Amino acid sequence: MKHLPKHLRPRWRYLAVELETWPDERLGRRSFQRELWYAGQNLLGDPGSADADLSVVRFRFTDGTGEAVVKVRRGETESARAALACIDEIDGAPVGIRVSGISGTIRAAEENYLGRDGQDSEERNVVFGNEERVAVLRDDVGDVRLDEAFVGATDLDYHLV
After folding, report:
1. Which of 16, 57, 142, 159 shows its CA 20 to 30 Å from the CA of 110?
2. Residue 143 pLDDT
3. Distance of CA 8 to the CA centre of its chain
4. Is 130 exposed, middle or buried (0-12, 13-18, 19+ CB in 10 A)?
5. Cβ density class 92-120: b for 16+ within 10 Å, e for less
6. Is residue 90 a contact partner of residue 31, using CB atoms and an 8 Å limit?
7. Cα–Cα distance measured from residue 35 to residue 89, given in angstroms and rounded to the nearest whole number
8. In 10 A of CB 144, how many CB atoms?
9. What pTM value is reported for the model?
């Protein structure tokens, strides 16, 4: 089967969602997804729910607080927000849900709205293979630029200039 051309593929938006409940409650991704589908169907009906195509792509929950990234079709973000607002409990546990932002990519949603930091990196000149080269360093590892590509290296493989 052939892939659709880029201009015919569906466009997505990602909602960064924060969850809060009692500290002793346990919530799972499947439970949240099920409640999201039910809320979408009850509020929007079958056609509206199909148009929104709500799905949970990231989920993390511990000690009564959590966060999720919900994928929705572009143009249906307001419907998705309304469906999320209809969720008041998951598996019998009362839950508070807040949409903290909407983004065009999962990564941007996590970094901008859920407080996950991107990787800190810096470019430095290093000596690698008896030549001075440019390297992108992150934590204890680096990627050294060779002629047309990068090679992975640790701090034992190169020397800072």
Report:
1. 142
2. 76
3. 24
4. exposed
5. eeebebebeebbeeeeebbebbbeeeeee
6. yes
7. 8
8. 21
9. 0.70
Strand ranges inside the chain, DSSP E: 12-20, 55-62, 65-73, 89-90, 93-94, 96-103, 122-128, 131-138, 141-145, 150-154, 159-160
Q: Whole-angstrom Cα distance, residue 123 to residue 4?
A: 38
Q: Amino acid identity of 30?
A: R
Length of the chain equals 161
The token pair at 77 is: 């973000």
pLDDT at position 83: 96
Digit-coded pLDDT (tens) for 29-86: 999 999 999 999 999 999 999 999 999 999 999 888 899 999 999 999 999 999 999 9
Cα 42-77-70 angle, rounded to 5 deg: 80
pLDDT for res 117: 60
**CA neighbor of 89 nearest in space, from 34, 47, 51:** 34
Sheet holding 55-62, edge to edge: 55-62, 65-73, 12-20, 96-103
Nearest 5 degrees, angle CA 88-CA 92-CA 95? 35
- How far, in Å, CA of 156 to CA of 161, rounded? 14
